[in-house]
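Researcher: Structure for this, please.
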Amino acid sequence: MERMMGWLRTQDRQLLLFANRRSANRWIQACLGRWLSTATHMGGATFTLATGLLIAISSSSSLWRAAGWQCLVAVALSHLPVAIMKRRFRRLRPYQKLPFIHACRSPLKDSSFPSGHTTAIFAWLLPITLAEGASATYTIPAALLVGLSVAWSRMYLGLHYPSDVMAGFLLGTTTSAIIVLNWPL
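Model: Predicted structure, token format:
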């Protein structure tokens, strides 16, 4: 078991180093840095809660109003286990532990595990994607691009390990699925 845990830690660190690397091409680096620095904010509380509320109160469709409320409830409820786990595990962020990690300006200082931004974006995405219904064929790739961009940005910015992001994905998606499946029609 100890050997397997060591292997998992090594893989976690290797993927982090891959995600956190910078391109030698300045143009690629500028574009990638700008996109991921913007995308990371889509996983924040301000974006996910504000857009969920906006959808809930401004939609003429009852399906979209329900999706907006589901987003709000899923994001809020998914952050209860996030808060508990951050206090319980107190994992240092990559930039705090590994001196060679590229970090964003004014990085967060709370616990790294799990990623709250990744939790929020995946809790938010499921109701939005499902509200599209038949046209979800086009929405699913866009939703995956947004969700994966937020998740990748957290590693790119030196704020989370891949395991933090994976835990956030699982928490957000599971909470959202429970909310959607139990939502009164």
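Researcher: Any notable elements?
Model: The mean pLDDT is 90. The helical segments are 2-20, 26-39, 45-58, 62-89, 94-97, 116-131, 136-156, 162-181.
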